[in-house]
Write a structure and sequence with these properties.
Layout: E1 3-5, H1 6-13, E2 26-28, E3 30-31, E4 42-43, H2 57-62, E5 67-71, E6 83-86, H3 89-103, E7 107-112, H4 117-128, E8 134-136, H5 146-152, E9 160-164, H6 172-180, E10 184-187, H7 195-198, H8 201-208, E11 220-224, H9 228-233, E12 240-244, E13 256-260, E14 263-268, E15 271-275, H10 281-295, H11 300-308, E16 318-321, E17 327-331, H12 337-349, E18 356-361, H13 370-380, E19 388-392, H14 396-403, E20 412-415, H15 418-428, E21 434-438, H16 446-452
Parallel strand pairs: 3-4, 4-5, 5-6, 7-9, 7-10, 8-9, 10-11, 11-12, 17-21, 18-19, 18-21, 19-20
Antiparallel strand pairs: 1-2, 13-14, 14-15, 16-17
Length: 453
């Protein structure tokens, strides 16, 4: 993590007002959360819609913070303590992260996309860790606050930083990209997430392409080459590119894909690879990771080793055994029409199970066409492939309605109460069955998973 003198910190954030006697003191690490203050760290209080971290400045010093960054418009800065004044503490946090990463001899891989960016980040890190010292985004620290904190937690001898870049609107990815200046930028895909904010898939594509704004001049842009919205826009960018996808027109594409309960096998350039991750769509994420690793000089055997040791962040097609002996696929972290259809396709094609169940809930932030998107998901479920369909929530009712256009009514069950859904599901699921659970994070369908296991 960052370790600098307060004199250096003041210059890095463009601050002022630090008393001379404190300038030789050092800080180790940065936090914006007064509950996570550690000895000798720098506390940067942020101002939000319903909170103001400046209220905890004195407490942070008492709890061991070495110094505080202070927005000049805020009253009552800590007394008899090192304080650096700035115009805006959020801007200061971002400036500090940019200055720090610019000072290090580190290559940066920036990853965004509507679906799969966290999984791809985990895959890229796993492949690169076979050869380099790697630092990657943890959890959901991928926004205008989380990414700077991720950078500042990086050790100085890091060789490659793998940074996930999230967004909710235009301009956010550009901010993160210009902060990190990636050597390699990746777009996993263009889906329907954020339609409420961006209005169309075209708008989403343009927002995601902001990741190229900070790409180094000799950097490489890797993207899903089967996506027409990217095909149409990338040529005008005049940057080095590589593509991955299903079609043979891509630089990286699979010649064979075999789905097993323990993971997925695929071939690229006549070499076979195995990832302990379910889902054909995760092969595209693996191809993106393969492209990154190849570009950065990871050798073939190391790539195979890296794929085998992948550890995916939780609640993303996570296979768990239930008390009943059934298999539960926990994909409850997030959902969009694209990712939900991919998960359904996965369970439909799994072999060796007596019954297959899907538990599907609302997909959020889809804008005006949200009901039709949910009905399309229901219609996409193939009759005879799934034994029972369970849906939950206001929009989950639309999935049920779409499914009932093809399915027998008695096989489609909609619930407004989670407890009732769980009771019926547990009565039907037995050993040698498999259950997929998927919805947007706000639906908290992991509660269904926990009830089963």
């Amino acid at each position: 993590m960052i370790k600098r003198s307060l004199h250096d910190i003041e210059k890095m954030v463009g601050g002022f007002g630090l008393e001379e006697k404190y300038k030789t003191l050092y800080i180790t690490g940065v936090t914006t959360d007064s509950r996570q203050v550690e000895e000798c760290c720098l506390f940067i209080p942020l101002v939000g819609d319903i909170y103001n971290g400046h209220e905890f400045g004195e407490k942070a010093i008492k709890d061991g913070a070495a110094a505080v960054i202070w927005q000049k418009t805020e009253k009552n800065p800590p007394k008899d303590a090192p304080v650096i004044f700035v115009e805006d503490t959020l801007t200061a946090l971002q400036a500090l992260a940019k200055s720090y990463i610019d000072q290090l001899q580190v290559k940066v891989v920036g990853i965004t996309g509507s679906n799969g960016k966290t999984t791809t980040k985990d895959m890229v890190a796993s492949l690169l860790e076979t050869t380099f010292k790697v630092h990657k985004t943890k959890g959901n620290f991928n926004n205008h606050i989380g990414l700077p904190l991720t950078v500042l937690s990086m050790s100085e001898d890091t060789e490659i930083a793998v940074l996930e870049m999230g967004m909710s609107g235009k301009g956010e990815i550009e901010l993160l990209s210009t902060l990190a200046n990636p050597d390699v930028a990746v777009i996993t895909n263009i889906g329907e997430s954020h339609l409420m904010d961006l209005g169309s898939r075209e708008g989403i594509a343009e927002a995601k392409l902001e990741i190229t704004k900070g790409l180094k001049k000799d950097g490489l842009f890797i993207y899903h080459g089967d996506e027409q919205l990217l095909q149409e826009r990338v040529p005008s960018l005049s940057i080095h590119t590589a593509t991955f996808g299903e079609k043979s027109t891509n630089d990286y594409y699979p010649t064979e894909i075999t789905q097993e309960l323990t993971g997925t096998s695929f071939k690229v350039k006549n070499e076979e690879y195995f990832i302990p991750v379910l889902g054909k769509h995760n092969v595209w994420n693996a191809l993106a990771a393969y492209a990154v690793a190849s570009h950065l000089g990871v050798k073939e055997e190391a790539i195979k080793e890296g794929f085998l040791s992948i550890k995916i962040t939780g609640m993303r097609l996570e296979l768990i055994e239930a008390k009943s002996g059934a298999s539960v696929i926990n994909d409850a972290y997030n959902a969009s029409p694209t990712s939900m259809k991919a998960a359904i396709d996965l369970i439909e094609n799994l072999k060796g199970f007596e019954q297959k169940f899907v538990v599907l809930g609302d997909m959020l932030e889809l804008g005006e066409e949200e009901k039709e998107y949910h009905r399309e998901v229901g219609r996409a479920i193939k009759p005879n492939n799934i034994s029972h369909i369970f849906t939950y929530g206001r929009l989950g009712a639309e999935i049920a309605a779409g499914a009932r256009e093809k399915y027998s009514q008695e096989l489609v069950h909609h619930f407004e109460e989670k407890s009732e859904l769980i009771t019926m599901l547990k009565s039907l699921v037995h050993k040698n069955d498999v259950v997929l659970v998927k919805a947007s994070r706000g639906m908290k369908l992991e509660e269904v998973v926990n009830a089963l296991i």
